[in-house]
Amino acid sequence: MSNIMGYFRKSKNALEKGGITLKNITEEKVRCPICKSYETRRAIAKQKVTCPHCGHHFRIGARTRIKALCDKDSFHELFSNIETIDPLEFPGYQDKMDRGRAVSGEEEGVVCGTAKIRHQRCAVFVMEPGFMMGSMGSVVGEKIARLFEYAAEHELPVVGFTASGGARMQEGILSLMQMAKTSGAVEQHSKKGGLYITVLTDPTTGGVTASFAMLGDIILSEPNATIGFAGRRVIEQTTKKKLPEDFQKAEFLLEHGFVDAIVPRTELRGTLEKLLRQHGRKE
Ligand SMILES: [Zn+2]
């Protein structure tokens, strides 16, 4: 349980770990892990952080995604002032958070706010893969729960981007409690008639998959994203069965009914606009 990223694909370089962020868009060339071609970070960023040759979706920082997704200057951040108190005084936790802040430029594993996507007003949360792999501690849970409460009060749909290694083991049981808290907040928003769209991105795993990531009224995914609860090795060892090669990939989940559609990043704005327009409240 807890932070189970270790069971998934290991990232060798910072580009894969934290993705392309607003800070590191440079002329430096990086290699696509799929088609092995070299391209500058700037060229990749121009294609909404996908490979210009094969379409591979690189990991993307929360701020970069917000910039690529929302109408210009429409994003207003909420709940940015909540900090963890390191409840267990877990050894090395502060250092890890400092590193996460340095890599991602964010204070925590999720960014929340309100925005417009092609003129459609909504509440948005975007998880930050560069901050401790978007792991869910009490701050991440609290910010997401508050966003749903805010959206329910202001009659806004919620669009949420998940990217997480699961619950944050450094906060122990308090991390696991966030699953119930966020799920409860989603339920309250839903009871008031609010629309909730999730976009699963690589990777969405552990306690995040087991709570708000899979509670969307409409569940979209980026291509080739790893989505699962426990890791492949754990399941294979427990069941003593070999799993299919594409197990826990977005395409496999689509085939088996867990995902409604796979949408490439370059088409996301258009798809979300359509869904928000069709299902959202009338002004
Ligand atoms: Zn490529």
From TrEMBL:
Required cofactor names: Zn(2+)
Gene expressing this chain: accD
Cofactor note: Binds 1 zinc ion per subunit.
Catalytic activity reported: N(6)-carboxybiotinyl-L-lysyl-[protein] + acetyl-CoA = N(6)-biotinyl-L-lysyl-[protein] + malonyl-CoA
GO CC list: acetyl-CoA carboxylase complex
Annotated positions binding Zn(2+): C32, C35, C51, C54
Source organism of the structure: Anaerotignum faecicola
PROSITE patterns noted in UniProt: COA_CT_NTER (PS50980)
Keyword line: ATP-binding, Cytoplasm, Fatty acid biosynthesis, Fatty acid metabolism, Lipid biosynthesis, Lipid metabolism, Metal-binding, Nucleotide-binding, Transferase, Zinc, Zinc-finger
Compartments (UniProt record): Cytoplasm
Keyword Magnesium among UniProt keywords: no
Highest taxon in the source lineage: Bacteria
Pathway entry: Lipid metabolism; malonyl-CoA biosynthesis; malonyl-CoA from acetyl-CoA: step 1/1
Database matches in InterPro entries: AcCoA_carboxyl_beta, Acetyl_CoA_COase_Trfase_b_su, ClpP/crotonase-like_dom_sf, COA_CT_N
SUPFAM superfamilies on file: ClpP/crotonase (SSF52096)
Family: Belongs to the AccD/PCCB family.
Domain CoA carboxyltransferase N-terminal as annotated: residue spans: 28-283
Enzyme Commission number, as recorded: 2.1.3.15
Annotated zinc fingers (C4-type), start-end: 32-54
Record function comment: Component of the acetyl coenzyme A carboxylase (ACC) complex. Biotin carboxylase (BC) catalyzes the carboxylation of biotin on its carrier protein (BCCP) and then the CO(2) group is transferred by the transcarboxylase to acetyl-CoA to form malonyl-CoA.
Gene Ontology BP terms: fatty acid biosynthetic process; malonyl-CoA biosynthetic process
Gene3D superfamilies: 2-enoyl-CoA Hydratase, Chain A, domain 1 (3.90.226.10)
Subunit structure: Acetyl-CoA carboxylase is a heterohexamer composed of biotin carboxyl carrier protein (AccB), biotin carboxylase (AccC) and two subunits each of ACCase subunit alpha (AccA) and ACCase subunit beta (AccD).
Name of the protein in question: Acetyl-coenzyme A carboxylase carboxyl transferase subunit beta
GO molecular function (one): ATP binding
